[in-house]
Design goal:
Elements: E1 10-14, H1 19-31, E2 34-39, E3 47-48, E4 51-54, H2 57-64, E5 68-71, H3 75-86, E6 92-95, H4 102-114, E7 118-120, E8 126-129, E9 133-136, E10 145-152, H5 155-163, E11 170-175, H6 186-195, E12 201-207, H7 212-223, E13 228-233, H8 257-266, E14 270-271, H9 278-286
Parallel strand pairs: 1-2, 1-5, 2-4, 5-6, 6-7, 10-11, 10-12, 12-13, 13-14
Antiparallel strand pairs: 3-4, 8-9, 8-11
Helix pairs in contact: 3-4, 6-7, 7-8
């Protein structure tokens, strides 16, 4: 098994005629993902690498039976793109777009929850279930099938951690995004990994800012029975300065790496300080 996506996922690409949408639609299709259609208003009837283009998400879903969407739409239009996907009938939306206005994201996520639709992101690299499907922008060469589930706030660190799972591989890898407001959080993913029989160990890749890692640690303490490893980025970051992601800022003395590491350790999560440490620690737990 895997979580969120698999070989049966039928994907449409919103913004497929743009540079990034066309490029990643091609890579996802080459990986084996069922990319069944694309959407760009006013450009319906075209094809991109054999993928039919539709004028609206609803039209694309009706014609293709799609159940997932990925969004490569400029930030100012991403809120409307999210809502259009929510109302189209798909059950999973991955929003890669960075810089989505906060109020637009809050509105779309709230509406999605009322309709049972899961949003991953915004500002995320997406998800990959190695050997089955990729719905995102991650480089496929960093991943291979196996029993380790990875959930991360950081795109690039996600690839780095995955590449250091040693003789093991990954069941599903999810980049949830680094914005202050996101549709899917650590706890959502921990629940799914805990219930997934293919996943035998879980890695949480956190960073400074906010309190999601502390909440995840509390959840692990109470509900997760599988080995969990944790990594926190930004251990030397200065306070009151945003580091890369919009949500990565130590503010009013809270959200520090030290606090998050302590929360992990108190919950029994084994902390790694360098990605290269992960392979040996996995070996100790899984063999």
């Amino acid at each position: 098994m895997s979580i969120l996506i698999d070989q049966n996922t039928r994907l449409i690409v919103q913004g497929i005629t743009g540079r990034d949408g066309a490029f990643h639609a091609r890579l996802m299709k080459e990986y084996g993902t069922q990319v069944v259609g694309g959407v760009t208003p006013g450009k319906g009837g075209q094809e991109i690498d054999g993928i039919p283009v539709f004028n609206s998400v609803a039209e694309a879903v009706r014609a293709t039976g799609a159940d997932a969407s990925i969004i490569f739409v400029p930030a100012n239009f991403a809120g409307d793109a999210l809502l259009e996907a929510v109302f189209s009938g798909v059950k999973l939306i991955v929003c890669v777009t960075e810089g989505v206005p906060v109020l637009d994201a809050i509105k779309a996520i709230a509406v999605a929850k009322t309709r049972g639709v899961r949003i991953v992101g915004p500002n995320c690299p997406g998800a990959i279930s190695p050997g089955k499907a990729k719905v995102g922008i991650m480089p496929a060469a960093a991943f291979r099938p196996g029993p380790v589930g990875i959930v991360s706030r950081s795109g690039t660190l996600t690839y780095e951690i995955a590449a250091n799972t040693g003789e093991f591989g990954q069941s599903t890898v999810i980049g949830i995004g680094g914005d202050p407001v996101i549709g899917t959080n650590f706890i959502d993913c921990l629940k799914m990994f805990q219930d997934d029989p293919e996943t035998r160990a879980i890695v949480i890749v956190g960073e400074i800012g906010g309190s999601d890692e502390e909440k995840a640690a509390q959840f692990v303490r109470q509900y997760v029975t599988k080995p969990v490893f944790g990594f926190i980025a930004g251990q030397t970051a200065p306070p009151d300065k945003r580091m890369g992601h919009a949500g990565a800022i130590i503010s009013a003395g809270s959200g520090t790496a030290a606090e998050k590491i302590q929360a992990f350790q108190s919950a029994g999560i084994e902390v790694i300080y360098e990605p290269e440490q992960l392979a040996e620690k996995l070996k100790a737990k899984l063999t």
